[in-house]
Amino acid sequence: xxxxxxxxxxxxxxxxxxxxxxxxxxxxxxxxxxxxxxxxxxxxxxxxxxxxxxxxxxxxxxxxxxxx
Length: 68
Description:
The chain is mostly beta strands. The protein has strands at residues 4-10, 18-22, 32-37, 40-53, 58-66.
């Protein structure tokens, strides 16, 4: 079973929400998260992984803009 972690979203329409993602074999989450809006893929926003505290393996996904 893969390990998971909850990561907060910062900025954009989903600011303050969290997402649960699977960690890769090296213990790192995916580099990006595509957050679906009310319009599904048409309203998706891109969030990019940022390290909050590298020593404690803490991250956030920072809003980068619309996916389309």
